[in-house]
Amino acid sequence: MRHTDEAPAVTEALGRLREKGERVTAARRAVLQVLDEARGHMCAEDIAERVDAAEPGVHRATIYRSLQSLSELGIVAHTHVPGSATIYHLKHSAASQHSHAHLQCTTCERFFDVPTDWLGPLGDRMREELGFELDSQHAALLGTCADCVTERSTN
């Protein structure tokens, strides 16, 4: 049964779960809704807090297991962030209809999304010269954003 306030991306993700023969649980539905409504990148702890507010009684361990299984099923993407918590987003949400890589400023810690095709030449060269397949969505690339570079140069 479709919830009347369910976003199209959540409906699509739940349909993909059913197609794969997976159960649609309250925890999975709540995790998907939180990720769809997210503005920015969220770690598991942030997701758990929002799920708890929306669905009190869903155990935190269940939320973490839901994130794990949804990632394994290809419905949720996760990105490892050096020195920080892994971040998650819904792969087919309106906010992320294109595949993207993540950049993180090491000074202010903000994230930036960039199209994965920007990294295409690097991936091609790695494949040709090393036989290495780059997964550009799986880890954040670190650097310094323009605002922090400007601030550093004016100080």
UniProtKB/TrEMBL annotation:
State if Membrane is listed as a keyword: no
* Membrane-spanning segments: none
Give the keywords, sorted: DNA-binding, Repressor, Transcription, Transcription regulation, Zinc
Which Pfam families does this one have? FUR (PF01475)
Would the keyword DNA-binding turn up in this protein's UniProt record?
Answer: yes
Family in the record: Belongs to the Fur family.
Could you identify this protein by its name? Fur family transcriptional regulator
